[in-house]
Design a protein that fits this description.
Chain B: Pfam families: GST_C_3, GST_N. The complex is a heterodimer. Chain A is of the alpha+beta class. In chain A, about 60% of the residues lie in helices and about 10% in strands. Chain A has two domains: about 5-80, 3-Layer(aba) Sandwich (Glutaredoxin), CATH 3.40.30; about 90-195, Glutathione S-transferase Yfyf (Class Pi), Chain A, domain 2 (Up-down Bundle). The chains are: A alpha+beta, B alpha+beta.
Chain lengths: ~210, ~220
């Protein structure tokens, strides 16, 4: 049985997808949080590249090996714990969703870091960029049995978790963003009602992203 | 020096029901090239569709492309989007994605880290403010690239000394992602690989693979 140690900041951000996977799969792990930016800078200078392959977090330490890159970690855990797919084509569909959610996340991060033009940026992304992506997501969802289930196949996968994870922030910052996408909205609520996700969301650290 | 006879000398065996692939992109290497290298390496035929700037708005409006973006891959009657989802799918189909969960995670990790570099490049490429652009370019050269290339050199060396490929004993998507991205990094920093001897040798090794060399000779020459 592998021992997992997930090292990340106290935010949801890039680490949360791996956390969702571990929560949904009911897998125990050590959840090591670092205060950003202060402690992170100190850790980087003391442990640096020997511990953090790309000088970034999150990292997953497992069986003496370190895996970096948030999506690589999440996919590795999903594969191991029955939250991916066996069929390579289904895997590609899952990846397509998680990559799209990552694109959305990068925009949210842009907004979060913006100093002078925050509101302008938020309007631009929410009005001009997200609708096209959400339309695409709703369409892909509907292609799977009419859209009343999950993104791929007939059970929860990494795609649904990734969607719920990033959508939480999207909706938190601008409620109603999913109003035109009833199937997506229903899926988000469905994932957030799953017992292990409920349990995790109740106890996870408070963060704006 | 390691060779890879098993892939270089055989064509992937396919059943009669081999899918027909159609890869859609612009007339550029960009986000489609690592997929094109996979096709070349596997010796698998595909339609290499390239839209001009004039064609794209019409094609985009057709709604055929799930997120209105390219590249897309049409296969099994379905349109797949997202450059790395496509590349990983092809790599899995052609046996070049890593042989077990851990190897796949290592390949993914490298591909994603390289993608982060590409995003950083795109960002300062599009930056309009001259001051910010210069700062971003400088950060790219002095911080972003050294951090990534340092990490990649270490990872390569950790794989049995670094005279083969990134993961396992044969080329994977990680190696193809590295060389395609490397073409762009070279534009900003022509001698960058001089500081990373194993990476430099890897790049040469990949471009010397017979099927890759053949593809590079015949592919359209494009600026990007």
């Amino acid at each position: 049985m592998s021992q997992y140690k997930l090292v990340y900041f106290q935010h949801r951000s890039r680490g949360e997808l791996a956390v969702f996977v571990l929560a949904e799969a009911g897998v125990k792990y050590e959840d090591k949080r670092i205060n950003w930016p202060g402690d992170w800078l100190a850790l980087k200078s003391s442990q640096g590249i020997s511990r953090f392959p790309f000088s970034r977090t999150p990292i997953l330490e497992v069986d003496g090996v370190t895996i970096g890159e948030s999506q690589a970690i999440a996919r590795f855990l999903a594969r191991r714990h029955g939250l991916y797919a066996d069929d390579v084509f289904d895997q590609a569909r899952i990846d397509m969703i998680t990559d799209t959610m990552k694109d959305i996340y990068e925009k949210l991060l842009d907004i979060w870091f913006a100093k002078e033009n925050k509101q302008e940026l938020m309007d631009k992304y929410y009005n001009d960029v997200f609708p096209l992506l959400l339309q695409g997501l709703e369409r892909v969802l509907k292609e799977n049995n009419g859209g009343d289930g999950y993104f791929v196949g007939d059970k929860v996968t990494l795609a649904d978790l990734s969607f719920a994870d990033i959508c939480y922030t999207m909706v938190d910052w601008r409620p109603g963003v999913l109003n035109d996408y009833p199937k997506l909205d229903a899926l988000k609520k469905c994932i957030e009602r799953r017992p292990r996700i409920v349990e995790w969301m109740k106890k996870r650290p408070e963060a704006s992203i | 020096m390691k060779s890879c006879p098993s892939i270089a000398s055989t064509t992937i065996e396919r059943s009669e029901a081999m899918p027909s692939y159609k890869l859609y992109y612009f007339n550029a290497r960009g986000r489609a090239e690592h997929s094109r290298l996979l096709f070349a390496m596997a010796g698998v035929e595909y339609q290499d569709v390239r839209y001009t700037r004039e064609q794209w708005p019409v094609e985009k409006a057709s709604g055929r492309f799930p997120f209105g973006q390219l590249p897309c891959l049409h296969v099994n009657g379905v349109m797949l989007a997202q450059s790395n989802a496509i590349a990983r799918y092809l790599a899995n189909e052609f046996g070049m994605a890593g042989k077990n969960n851990l190897e796949k995670a290592k390949v993914d990790m490298i591909v994603d880290a390289i993608d982060d570099l590409a995003q950083a490049m795109v960002k300062f490429f599009h930056e309009k403010d001259e001051q910010k652009k210069a700062e971003a370019k400088d950060e790219f050269k002095t911080k972003t690239v050294p951090i990534l290339y340092g990490a990649l050199e270490r990872l390569l060396i950790a794989n049995d000394g670094g005279d083969g490929f990134f993961v396992g004993e044969e080329p994977t998507l990680a190696d193809f992602a590295f060389v395609t991205n490397g073409d762009y990094v070279k534009k900003f920093n022509p001698e960058v690989l001089d500081n990373y001897p194993k990476l430099k040798a890897l790049q040469e090794r990949v471009f010397e693979l017979p099927r890759i060399a053949e593809w590079v000779k015949k592919r359209p020459v494009t600026e990007m």
